[in-house]
Amino acid sequence: MVKSTEWSRKTREQVITLHRKGNGYKKIAKMLNIPRDTIGSIIRKFKAKGTVETLPGRGRKKMLTSTAVRYLKRRVEKSPRVTAEELRKDLSDVGTEVSAQTIRRTLRNEGLHARTPRRTPLLSPKNKKSRLQYAKSHVDKPQKFWDSVLWTDETKLELFGPMDQRYVWRRKNKAYEEKNTLPTVKHGGGSIMLWGCFASAGTGKLQRVQGTMNSLQYQEILDDNVMQSVTNLRLGRRWTFQQDNDPKHTSKSTRAWLQIKGWNILKWPSQSPDLNPIENLWWDLKKAVAVRKPKNVTELEAFAHDEWAKIPVDRCKTLVSSYASRLKAVITVKGCCTKY
């Protein structure tokens, strides 16, 4: 028999209050719209136990004591990669025999769930220090400054990339039916490299990188696209150019080329994709292109240009207007990676 839902503590206290005022079971039941038998049960329990609180049940006792639960929580919070089997052995060594499944269930009840770790750049102490310094020195910049930044980056689009769906609903022993499989092609089946830029006012130019990009080709891409994007996005004369620390971006020839151009360069901390909001737009772009299922590299490029132009201005504006939140997050975690 399924246990019925218990009445709230407030309701049970009302029953006792009315009973003490001399009201009978039938009258209380009518006043509170509660079955008469329930009224009697609440009152009898109060007379016997002196409380309306829900008392501990007489069912099977918990396998783990509160001390053991606290140990498990401390252990996984200190060492998130520890397995349930390792925890089971730890408890077994001190005389507590439980299954690994019991440990998993206990941790889930405590709000701790086994999840695939997020992939983040490997940060050295020097990287963390640089990221923290960048965040602290820029966190108080006015929004007007960030609105005048031209954010740039490169990304790779694949015909059969990781954006494809990875889950299917199927029955047991039906894994290899064609409809339940995900066709793969060696080396991704074709891919393109793209350079792009955007600002608070919207997306800028997007260009395909031919072959393997070197410093000279990178400079040509900037020469063909940056100033046109600055003009189209109306960034004004006091705009700022952002790029990461890829070797092609920081080579001797590129530095000399940028110095001749006289652009204001945003000093960038290494290993910091989470600080570049264009990464969010790349994600949007890849999802949109994947939905259209390009059949070849030509369609892949065409769809990419089409979807890049469709990205709403509001999306760009929101990413830039919340940039201070990224910096505050870096400061909070002392230079480590953030959720962005």
From TrEMBL:
<feature type="domain" description="Transposase Tc1-like">
    <location>
        <begin position="70"/>
        <end position="140"/>
    </location>
</feature>
<dbReference type="InterPro" id="IPR002492">
    <property type="entry name" value="Transposase_Tc1-like"/>
</dbReference>
<protein>
    <submittedName>
        <fullName>Transposable element Tcb1 transposase</fullName>
    </submittedName>
</protein>
<dbReference type="InterPro" id="IPR047655">
    <property type="entry name" value="Transpos_IS630-like"/>
</dbReference>
<dbReference type="Pfam" id="PF01498">
    <property type="entry name" value="HTH_Tnp_Tc3_2"/>
</dbReference>
<dbReference type="InterPro" id="IPR057667">
    <property type="entry name" value="HTH_SB"/>
</dbReference>
<dbReference type="InterPro" id="IPR036388">
    <property type="entry name" value="WH-like_DNA-bd_sf"/>
</dbReference>
<dbReference type="InterPro" id="IPR052338">
    <property type="entry name" value="Transposase_5"/>
</dbReference>
<dbReference type="InterPro" id="IPR038717">
    <property type="entry name" value="Tc1-like_DDE_dom"/>
</dbReference>
<dbReference type="Pfam" id="PF25787">
    <property type="entry name" value="HTH_SB"/>
</dbReference>
<feature type="domain" description="Sleeping Beauty transposase HTH">
    <location>
        <begin position="1"/>
        <end position="53"/>
    </location>
</feature>
<dbReference type="InterPro" id="IPR036397">
    <property type="entry name" value="RNaseH_sf"/>
</dbReference>
<dbReference type="InterPro" id="IPR009057">
    <property type="entry name" value="Homeodomain-like_sf"/>
</dbReference>
<feature type="domain" description="Tc1-like transposase DDE">
    <location>
        <begin position="149"/>
        <end position="300"/>
    </location>
</feature>
<dbReference type="Pfam" id="PF13358">
    <property type="entry name" value="DDE_3"/>
</dbReference>
<dbReference type="GO" id="GO:0006313">
    <property type="term" value="P:DNA transposition"/>
</dbReference>
<dbReference type="GO" id="GO:0003677">
    <property type="term" value="F:DNA binding"/>
</dbReference>
<dbReference type="GO" id="GO:0015074">
    <property type="term" value="P:DNA integration"/>
</dbReference>
